[in-house]
Design a protein that fits this description.
The chain is mainly alpha-helical. Helix content is about 60%, strand content about 10%.
Length: about 170
C-alpha cells in the first residue's frame, strides 16, 4: 500500500509540476502594450514596430523588442522625416531648372517670332499704303484670277484697308 501511495504521490507531484510549468509557459508568451490611443492591448504576438519601447508593459521572459524594418528605422531616426539623398536632390533641382529654362527659351522664341511677323506685316502695309497714296496706276487680281486696274473707289477702299492693317500691326 505504501508503494501505491508513493507512486500516486509521485504521479500527482509530476502532474502538478507539468500543470504549473504549462501555465507558466502560457503566461510567459503574453505581450502587453499601450496603443497610440492609450488602450492596453494584450496578445501572444509582439506589438507592431511603431509602438515605442516605453509603451510595452509586459513581454515574454527573454523576449527582445521587435526589430523595425530598415525603412521604419531610418524614418524614425530622422527627426524631420525620411532621409534625403543630396545627390538625387541636386539632380532633381537641376532637371527642374533646366526644364524651366527650356520652357522660357521656347516662350521667348515664340514671342520673337510673333514680333518679327508683326514687324514684316507692318512694313508691307506701309509700303502698300505709300504706293497707293503716290497716285501711280495700281492693279490687283480679282476673284477670277484676272488683273484689273484700280479706279478711284477701289483705290480709296485699298487705302482704307492698308491703313487699318498698318495701324494694327505697327503699334
Amino acid at each position: 500500500m505504501k508503494t501505491i501511495v508513493s507512486s500516486f504521490g509521485r504521479l500527482g507531484l509530476l502532474a502538478l509540476v507539468v500543470a504549473l510549468g504549462h501555465s507558466s509557459a502560457l503566461a510567459q508568451s503574453i505581450w502587453k502594450w499601450r496603443d497610440k490611443d492609450g488602450h492596453v492591448q494584450v496578445s501572444d504576438r509582439p506589438p507592431p514596430v511603431e509602438i515605442p519601447e516605453k509603451d510595452i508593459l509586459q513581454r515574454p521572459h527573454g523576449a527582445r523588442a521587435p526589430m523595425p524594418s530598415p525603412a521604419a528605422s531610418d524614418a524614425a531616426s530622422m527627426p524631420d522625416g525620411p532621409r534625403v539623398d543630396p545627390t538625387l536632390e541636386a539632380k532633381k533641382t537641376k532637371m527642374q531648372t533646366d526644364q524651366a529654362a527650356a520652357e522660357k527659351a521656347k516662350k521667348d522664341a515664340e514671342t520673337a517670332k510673333r514680333n518679327q511677323a508683326k514687324l514684316e506685316t507692318c512694313q508691307r502695309a506701309r509700303n502698300q499704303l505709300a504706293a497707293l497714296e503716290s497716285g501711280q496706276r495700281m492693279g490687283r487680281m480679282n476673284e477670277k484670277g484676272e488683273r484689273e486696274i484700280l479706279d478711284d473707289a477701289g483705290r480709296a477702299a485699298e487705302i482704307a484697308r492698308s491703313r487699318s492693317i498698318a495701324d494694327s500691326a505697327c503699334n
